[in-house]
């Protein structure tokens, strides 16, 4: 899971410039829409492999591996400048990192209790809420209604459902953190140069998660195969998608990028079926489609509003 929503709630932001340069030659020959889709599936593959680690490690330990790997990889290319930071900058960076930590912890707890498609769909209510809150159009009430219908369909009313109330609650908490993350990432982009704010936040996040992750993971965290998978999750969830999206954003409008990003819950459900054999009921697919439609609608309307305002 990753998101760097700045101007657009579904815009993952500047990405990693140096890893992106490695892929630039190959990426230039691929249509930008395909790069976005590859990035989406990379993120969901990372989540799928992380979920498979739950058989050996608790979710909090997997979160620690994922964030620590991301912080090390990002820190190798972007070293945050801490010297000369004002008190507000420190507060923003620490808050940014703490929000990132809680977002990942709650999402992985949701992932341990829900099929991937459902967890991502419910979490997506966070950026959807930011998109709707930024607009004053009455039509946005339609998207709110669609998203609400999706949540109602996903709620575990029956005993045969694969969802759980605790999983839904964790996913909603992750979505709320995602909404906060969107706002904090925009503020960090104004106070920190380039991606140094993100690098600072990743380090803070790793420090915040380390006590619970190390305590729950214990000696299992030292197993080479688990460390290798954790590194792979960090690459799939961070470096690869950010690099691909950076190249795509250079060649396509942000509105189109946001529309494509609305496909992420459906991609998560598909990866869940193919990688984890998480077969969903018709009602659950309908719920996911409701949330995807709400995301598409709010993003398209936001784009039209932006064009009219120019």
TrEMBL record:
Could you tell me where this protein is found in the cell? Answer: Cell membrane
What is the protein's major site of localization? membrane
Q: Which residues form the EamA domain?
A: 166-297
Q: Which UniProt keywords apply?
A: Cell membrane, Membrane, Transmembrane, Transmembrane helix
**Keyword set includes Metal-binding:** no
Q: Which SUPFAM superfamilies match?
A: Multidrug resistance efflux transporter EmrE
Q: Name one GO cellular component term.
A: plasma membrane
- Residue ranges of the TM segments: 56-78, 90-108, 114-134, 141-158, 164-184, 196-214, 226-244, 256-276, 282-303
Give the way it sits in the membrane.
Multi-pass membrane protein
Q: Which family does it belong to?
A: Belongs to the EamA transporter family.
PANTHER family in alphabetical order = EAMA DOMAIN-CONTAINING PROTEIN, OS03G0707200 PROTEIN-RELATED
State the protein's name: EamA family transporter
């Amino acid at each position: 899971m990753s998101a760097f929503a700045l101007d657009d709630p579904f815009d993952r932001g500047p990405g990693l410039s140096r890893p992106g340069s490695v892929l630039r030659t190959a990426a230039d020959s691929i249509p930008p829409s395909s790069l976005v889709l590859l990035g989406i599936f990379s993120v969901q593959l990372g989540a799928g492999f992380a979920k498979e680690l739950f058989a050996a490690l608790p979710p909090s330990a997997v979160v620690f591996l994922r964030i620590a790997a991301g912080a090390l990889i990002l820190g190798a290319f972007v070293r945050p400048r801490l010297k000369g930071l004002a008190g507000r900058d420190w507060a923003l960076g620490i808050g940014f990192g703490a929000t990132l930590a809680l977002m990942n912890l709650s999402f992985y707890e949701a992932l341990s209790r829900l099929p991937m498609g459902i967890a991502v769909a419910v979490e997506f209510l966070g950026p959807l809420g930011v998109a709707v809150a930024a607009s004053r159009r009455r039509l946005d009430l339609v998207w709110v209604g669609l998203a609400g219908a999706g949540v109602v369909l996903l709620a575990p009313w029956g005993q045969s459902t694969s969802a759980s109330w605790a999983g839904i609650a964790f996913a909603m908490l992750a979505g709320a953190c995602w909404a906060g993350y969107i706002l904090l990432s925009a503020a960090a982009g104004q106070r920190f140069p380039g991606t140094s704010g993100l690098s600072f936040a990743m380090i803070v996040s790793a420090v915040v998660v380390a006590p619970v992750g190390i305590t729950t993971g214990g000696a299992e965290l030292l197993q080479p195969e688990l460390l290798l998978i954790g590194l792979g999750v960090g690459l799939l969830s961070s470096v690869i998608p950010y690099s691909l999206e950076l190249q795509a954003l250079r060649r396509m409008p942000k509105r189109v990028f946001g529309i494509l990003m609305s496909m992420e819950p459906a991609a998560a459900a598909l990866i869940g079926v193919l990688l984890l054999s998480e077969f969903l009921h018709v009602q659950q697919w309908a719920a996911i489609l409701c949330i995807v439609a709400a995301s598409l609608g709010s993003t398209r309307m936001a784009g039209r509003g932006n064009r009219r305002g120019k």
